[in-house]
């Protein structure tokens, strides 16, 4: 409610009260103040000290806008409190006097008033604004700027008004205006920077002109000049930093590797190179692979370099895979049979003392042995055993064979055979079993009936078990060393690795537990694998040699069985798989470059290149968007040479094989990224300066002549209002 009062001069004023008496008192006070003001129309000039105080007050009022009168009134309120006088009245009187003095100060010293105003504004730039993490994204910076603007806008608004409601309303208005200003500042400054980069590419001659201007102070300070090549390296580094931080490391085996960063990519390249694989950056993540494929498009020097590097590496793939097999599984000879024979001879010499001890033990002919002696398998083997002994220039009779006058063995005198004699017969039995499976013995040259061989081997095994049961030394020798026949069998079994299953290999391991037998099996297996790698690479120059060898290794059960055959080479199969997977990743890259990448992947690479060069993106069909697209097309034409230079530099990075040079190139990428992050952080902090000043000086309503606060019109101590 308000009451209208007519003053003596006919002026009508609205008093914010419905009490006529209070309205009359307020009107009298206003009339008295006007009369006093008229009598003192020429106020007494301020002294030097008072002017200095006015300068300080104006500075404070601009440092913390709208709080200068409140701060100036604090001493008045404090004195009133000490004297026991109304504090609120003294505080209001102090505010009024501050405003009067500031008005007189502005009138008497306008230049000085400008100085104090600028001093306060300048000091407000140093007010705290908090920080965001280095390298924070645009969203975080936008929120931070909005929060700073809202804070200072709200504080400035809260200093304006006489009642609590007015201050709250002004604080909300100031916070809203300051938040909008602060939220827009960082995107606006970042947009200006990007527009500047775009202009360098879009306007003919602008790139060289900007570089020339930048070199002026560098020449004065005797610093190295910025060259065209350095500019292109910076632009390619921005592009590569975007691509190198996309996706994950390509580890294969159905697993997802660590998040891709320049550091993890470099570490993966070094790990693969340590395995003997000439890895490139383009091998180790999907983003790097598509980048390499994108960099190979065209006919520039960089594109030719990518294709030549990958073709050269591909041509040596089969030889490398063969080398991986040798490194992990063991040496491969051009004459593996001779290699097995050498192993066998060494094993025979090592086993000699053990067999000598076994052969010296007494022999007991068991009923089971008598039954075996009567089988054709045993009977047919005895003549061969005698012949083998004589061929070795030894005496059959010394081993218990009873010879007739004609020098032939007497077939009914087996009870005198020694352990060594029985062992010789066992070996002959196994020879006969093998001969029974010779292809020449079957029509068509292919064995069709294995019954005879199976029975002969079974009886030989039974006889060996009988000897081992009564002769510990023989049992130990048999468990430790395989004879020449056992090694040959193991070697031939290993040669069948491509067709064997995991359970079949495990069964072979149980039947040949001796270390030298497993060595022979390993020789056969790795020889077959190495020869297959060479053969496949020759017959399929565009094929995946590593994948073909991995198929030979089979599933996990087969790999475990193969590894069990190589106890002296722990993790041999796992290590080979790692190398083969690294080779396979390289082959994928080669195929991508040969067939080029998918359209979507190329478009993403082009988009990242546009971002590195500052191209603006407004995805709509508005007039602004169409104009932007036209500008982009013009820029693409002007910057064609720039793009080619950048693509050539990218091609060098993704196919650099020397780890030291690659590390230097990656360091260059991370250094540019760090400079850009630092610049963006500084740009954000710079945007906070006008945010603080603008938010605190946003327009707010002027103080009212008559306040809605009734306490404002209570008589002062001197009778005024």
Question: What labels describe this entry?
Answer:
721 residues, two-stranded antiparallel ribbon, two-stranded antiparallel sheet, 2% strand, disordered C terminus
Structure description:
A hairpin with a 2-residue loop joins strand 3 and strand 4. It is built from 29 helices and four strands. It is elongated, with a radius of gyration of 49 Å. The C terminus is likely disordered. With 721 residues, the protein is mainly alpha-helical.
* Strand content bin: under 5%
Quaternary state reads single chain
The number of distinct helices, counting runs of at least 4 residues, comes to: 29
Strand order of the largest sheet: 1-2
The average pLDDT is 79
Shape by Cα distribution: elongated
Radius of gyration over all CA atoms, rounded: 49 Å
Task: Describe how the helices and strands are arranged.
Blueprint: E1 3-6, E2 12-15, H1 20-39, H2 48-63, H3 68-83, H4 87-108, H5 110-124, H6 138-158, H7 164-202, H8 206-220, H9 228-244, E3 248-252, E4 255-259, H10 262-274, H11 286-295, H12 301-315, H13 317-329, H14 336-359, H15 367-373, H16 376-391, H17 419-435, H18 451-470, H19 472-480, H20 484-495, H21 502-511, H22 515-539, H23 545-553, H24 556-564, H25 572-595, H26 599-613, H27 623-638, H28 640-654, H29 659-696
Antiparallel strand pairs: 1-2, 3-4
Quick recap of the structure?
This protein is mainly α and 721 residues long. The chain has helices spanning 20-39, 48-63, 68-83, 87-108, 110-124, 138-158, 164-202, 206-220, 228-244, 262-274, 286-295, 301-315, 317-329, 336-359, 367-373, 376-391, 419-435, 451-470, 472-480, 484-495, 502-511, 515-539, 545-553, 556-564, 572-595, 599-613, 623-638, 640-654, 659-696, and strands at residues 3-6, 12-15, 248-252, 255-259. The model is unreliable at 613-621, 624-638 and 700-721 (pLDDT under 50).
